[in-house]
Design brief:
CATH architecture: Alpha-Beta Barrel
Helix content: 40-55%
CATH topology: TIM Barrel
Largest sheet: 8 strands, parallel, barrel
Number of strands: 8
CATH superfamily: Aldolase class I
Strand content: 15-25%
Radius of gyration: 18 Å
Number of domains: 1
Strand order of the largest sheet: 1-2-3-4-5-6-7-8
Order of helices and strands: EHHEHEHEHEHEHHEHEHH
Length: about 260
């Protein structure tokens, strides 16, 4: 299992005080030394954490592949084509959301999406779509011709948090329901089964599969054990642990959980 470390939350800490540090660029050598496989960043339209200069410096200096998450906004896509990261993951984005609340809507009128994918691929960048785990989404991703899909694991993470007392403080994308423990356990098992089945389907369609959102040290193991998921992108929980253990140890701890 490959690990992409999302370093956005280093920039979140910096932007909270509008000062010069911590600098996300300083994380690059630590992330590599700890054995991670990829750097992930999200260049949002409102620039709430990663700034243009961050993206430029990280892509230029990183010896690991950089996965840049972004919305379909033309302004952002123009910047991405100038920066030329290894991979671009197209995600939905709302200004008012705390974190990405669901997968990209790829069903329906996809003219802008098709044109964006074609433009990025013509610039020799891999393209991934951040999608909710449904067969229709996987089939549409194949039709759109991308190399990767990334399953949004928020539903799984939220169910896990509900069962075990909100471990990891995940952002809720489903209603806070009073459900019997047995029912929650079954819902979690169903979600794992869905991810396993759909990742197999995607692999048979020659799509590479990643997953992420809300994954932490408590809930990651069941997802890591799905052999047809090649990569996990995890950020908030790693950066949160690093406050107490240091970033290198936090990544090493996560890597240990990804051993299959």
């Amino acid at each position: 299992m490959k690990l992409g470390v999302n370093i956005d939350h280093i920039a979140v800490l910096r932007e909270a005080r509008m000062v010069a540090d911590p600098n996300p660029l300083d994380a690059l050598s630590i992330v590599k030394r700890a054995g991670a496989d990829q750097i992930t960043i999200h260049l949002r339209e409102d620039r709430r954490h990663i700034q243009d200069i961050d993206a430029l410096n990280i892509i230029y200096h990183s010896s690991l592949p950089v996965n840049l998450e972004c919305a379909l906004a033309p302004e952002i896509i123009n910047i991405v084509c100038e920066l030329h990261p290894h991979r671009v993951t197209l995600v939905p984005e709302k200004r008012e959301e705390v974190t990405t609340e669901g997968g990209l809507n790829i069903l329906g009128n996809n003219e802008q999406l098709k044109a964006t994918i074609e433009r990025l691929q013509n610039e020799e960048m891999e393209v991934s779509l951040f999608i909710d785990p449904t067969l229709e989404n996987v089939e549409m991703a194949k039709e759109l011709g991308v190399e990767w899909i990334e399953f949004h694991t928020g539903k799984y993470a939220n169910l896990y948090a509900m069962l075990y007392g909100n471990l990891g403080n995940t952002h809720h994308t489903i209603p806070e329901l009073e459900l019997p423990r047995k029912e929650l356990v079954q819902m979690i098992e169903d979600e794992i089964s869905t991810l396993r089945t759909l990742s197999c389907d995607a692999m048979e369609m020659d799509l590479k599969v990643a997953a992420g959102h809300g994954l932490n040290y408590q809930n990651v193991k069941d997802i890591a054990d799905i052999e047809t998921i090649e990569e996990l992108n995890i950020g908030q929980s790693i950066v949160a642990r690093s406050i107490f253990t240091g970033l290198e140890q936090a990544i090493l701890d996560m890597k240990t959980l990804l051993i299959r």
